[in-house]
Recover the amino acids of this structure.
């Protein structure tokens, strides 16, 4: 038990911090204001090895561990939560499952460019009427000779409008429920694939999400990821890792709220002293710092369990549940510390407040995380 | 970055769990009712090395580190928080003397305190006074130089184990003009002439722990009773309290774990509307929050312990751990009681005791409010 990052992990953190501070942070407000997908930052993250962090080098990745991944996402998200989720989705939700479930051919053809950051991925599980309840999928995949024909609509797909490669979940045997779900690798330029207009969102406005419409999309069987009927297993195992990524994103947002508040509270004066010197404000800062620290430890603990290849679903759920809670509370308190200045876009904390909310919703709502944890406790914890 | 204990740390934890289950669990509820001080239990814990966990083998301790100490404290508190606090304070006193005392002081006090059948029962830490709690600069107890040593006069308040401790570290003003730097620490035998227990507090919880008001009326001690140099007392107290906060955070985590385990057990057993109540989302969600906070609290506590045992600065992390662990342990115990419904409110189940016991962790060794002041001050210093 040492709680100390290794030299390699520290080096990744430092690279991420430099990149985030020098290249991401200066653009974060404009990315939010313009709802702009930061294509050039994504390309830079590819160069830095951040788009396939835990993918081995032979498949185009950087070969880091999950701890380094968490440290990097925190840094990027501290500067810009939109950029953080683009990175998280590509790493956790697309590269990870292809690495784990893909064939050698699939890894070379599809994983390598995703991991190198030359192509961007998205993960299409949710539907208009199937979010956390994945077995309610309506997108169908039917046998068509040796291949498949796919029809349906996917919803809330992060990176959807800008992705090259989609990890797609379909129902090919409704009667089997969970066991009727099958996953595919879908190149987004396949005939019959269309994306809807980008969702107009409360926060993470630099992250493009949309519906994906699938209209008689034909895929060869070589595009299937994992077993026929094995898609639910792919989804669940992927989401555990995804939750660690979102916990790290939430952590970055929370830290942004804390650091911006700390700086402001030392500079802004009332009643003859810096507001940080008033206990009412000092306490908020103390609570924020304590909670951010707790969230970080939970997140890193989940990552270390992933690295150790022990079951970490409950630890990932705890990390995501708590870090997203902290991000929202910290951002709310940050606005309060900034007062009127917190409410205007000239200062960054109203963006943190808007960006924080999604972390309680996507990749499993807080309510779903609690169900996961309660299930773990009921089984004997 | 490792989040799992070493074999040695696990061995200490196992020892503590085993003795807690075997020795403490059967009578924890009875001690809560009778208020009996756990003299025999402390002796047995001493035999197992649990009174000086981080004290070196040469001095009679277990020679393990702060992480092992925290894990052991959690195990004891999980079963009986009263015994755990006596153990925590004894470890703190033993470490304080071992680290800052002369070899002769260590031989006189540390070894008998932590060794099997050393005869000192437990240690006490006498800093607080009726009008000086979190603000030690307001101390009024005085130590005046005599021909052969020092004469101590004053009143100490809220002294955990004050009625039974074989050795008491007493803080007193040796130079009133020097403020913080005029405070010194003295090693006073529990049986010293002129030292009396003026009152035993009746408390909300921790009934198996004694909380004494001690009066020092012309207590004479030798020159060899002063710990460290004269005027070093404030620095020693602050250092000890940083470490003590890890102990109390560990205690809070342990109590909360005991309460959560009881609640999960109950929720799997108790059925309403045709299913175990843990299957109802309302109950499952409460327990999920509690389990999440508990893990975070344990991680923060063990991280502070790791920093302390590596010789790195840990004051900020200890304050955060104590604040987080005590505040959330309170919420966890409340949830545990709520899950039990009416059964939680009566003494047939342990959570009623745990809720009362855990409350003090938000108060002693620096209230939550003081922790926030410490944390904010460190934050501002780090960015200034």
């Amino acid at each position: 038990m040492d709680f100390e990052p290794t030299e390699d992990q520290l080096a990744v953190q430092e690279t991420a911090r430099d990149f985030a501070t020098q290249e991401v942070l200066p653009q974060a407000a404009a990315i939010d204001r313009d709802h702009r997908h930061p294509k050039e930052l994504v390309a830079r993250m590819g160069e830095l090895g951040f788009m396939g962090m835990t993918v081995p080098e032979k498949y185009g990745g950087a070969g880091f561990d999950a701890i380094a991944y968490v440290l990097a996402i925190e840094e990027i998200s501290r500067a810009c939560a939109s950029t953080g989720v683009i990175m998280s989705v590509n790493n956790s939700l697309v590269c990870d499952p292809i690495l784990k479930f893909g064939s050698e051919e699939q890894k070379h053809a599809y994983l390598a460019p995703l991991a190198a950051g030359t192509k961007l991925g998205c993960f299409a599980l949710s539907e208009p009427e199937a979010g956390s309840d994945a077995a309610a999928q309506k997108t169908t995949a039917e046998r068509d000779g040796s291949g498949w024909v796919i029809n349906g609509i996917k919803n809330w797909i992060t990176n959807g409008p800008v992705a090259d490669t989609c990890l797609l979940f379909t129902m090919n045997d409704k009667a089997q429920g969970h066991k009727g779900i099958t996953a595919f690798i879908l190149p987004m330029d396949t005939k019959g694939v269309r994306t809807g207009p980008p969702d107009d969102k409360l926060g993470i406005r630099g992250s493009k999400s949309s519906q994906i419409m699938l209209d008689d999309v034909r895929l060869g069987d070589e595009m299937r990821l994992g077993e026929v009927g094995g898609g639910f297993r792919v989804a669940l195992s992927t989401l555990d890792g995804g939750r660690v990524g979102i916990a790290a994103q939430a952590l970055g947002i929370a830290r942004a709220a804390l650091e911006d508040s700390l700086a402001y509270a030392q500079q802004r004066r009332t009643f003859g002293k810096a507001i940080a010197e008033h206990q009412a404000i000092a306490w908020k800062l103390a609570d924020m710092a304590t909670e951010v620290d707790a969230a970080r430890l939970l997140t890193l603990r989940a990552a270390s369990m992933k690295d150790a290849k022990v079951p970490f679903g409950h630890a990932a759920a705890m990390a995501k549940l708590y870090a997203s809670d902290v991000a929202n509370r910290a951002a709310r308190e940050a606005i309060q510390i900034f007062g009127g200045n917190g409410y205007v876009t000239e200062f960054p904390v109203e963006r943190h407040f808007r960006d924080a909310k999604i972390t309680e919703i996507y990749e499993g709502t807080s309510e779903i995380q609690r169900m996961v944890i309660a299930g773990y406790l009921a089984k004997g914890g | 970055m490792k989040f799992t204990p070493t074999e040695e740390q696990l061995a200490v934890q196992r020892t503590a769990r085993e003795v807690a289950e075997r020795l403490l669990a059967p009578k924890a509820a009875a001690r809560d009712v009778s208020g009996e001080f756990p003299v025999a239990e402390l002796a047995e814990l001493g035999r197992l090395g649990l009174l000086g966990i981080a004290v070196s083998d040469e001095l009679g301790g277990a020679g393990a580190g702060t992480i092992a100490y925290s894990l052991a404290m959690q195990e004891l508190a999980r079963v009986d928080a009263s015994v755990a606090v006596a153990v925590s304070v004894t470890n703190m006193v033993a470490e304080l003397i071992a680290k800052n005392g002369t070899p002769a002081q260590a031989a006189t006090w540390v070894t008998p305190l932590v060794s099997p059948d050393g005869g000192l029962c437990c240690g006490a830490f006498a800093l607080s006074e009726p009008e000086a709690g979190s603000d030690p600069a307001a101390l009024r107890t005085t130590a005046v130089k005599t021909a052969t040593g020092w004469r101590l006069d004053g009143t100490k308040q809220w002294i955990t184990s004050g009625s039974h401790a074989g050795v008491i570290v007493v803080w007193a003003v040796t130079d009133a003009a020097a403020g913080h730097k005029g405070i010194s620490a003295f090693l006073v035998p529990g049986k010293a002439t002129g030292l009396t227990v003026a009152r035993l507090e009746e408390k909300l919880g921790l009934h198996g722990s004694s909380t004494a008001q001690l009066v020092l009326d012309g207590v004479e001690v030798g020159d060899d009773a002063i710990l460290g140099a004269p005027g070093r007392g404030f620095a020693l107290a602050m250092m000890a309290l940083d470490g003590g906060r890890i102990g109390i955070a560990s205690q809070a985590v342990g109590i909360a774990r005991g309460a959560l385990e009881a609640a999960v057990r109950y929720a799997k057993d108790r059925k309403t509307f045709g299913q175990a109540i843990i299957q109802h989302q309302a109950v499952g969600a409460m327990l999920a929050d509690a389990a999440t906070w508990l893990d975070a609290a344990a991680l923060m506590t063990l991280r502070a312990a790791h920093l302390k045992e590596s010789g790195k600065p840990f004051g900020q992390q200890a304050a955060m751990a104590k604040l987080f662990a005590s505040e959330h342990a309170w919420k966890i115990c409340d949830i545990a009681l709520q899950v039990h419904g009416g059964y939680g409110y009566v003494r047939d189940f342990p959570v009623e005791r745990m809720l009362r016991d855990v409350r003090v962790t938000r108060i002693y060794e620096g209230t939550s409010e003081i922790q926030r002041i410490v944390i904010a001050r460190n934050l501002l210093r780090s960015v200034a």
User: Anything to note?
Assistant: Chain A touches chain B through 46 residues (CB under 8 Å).
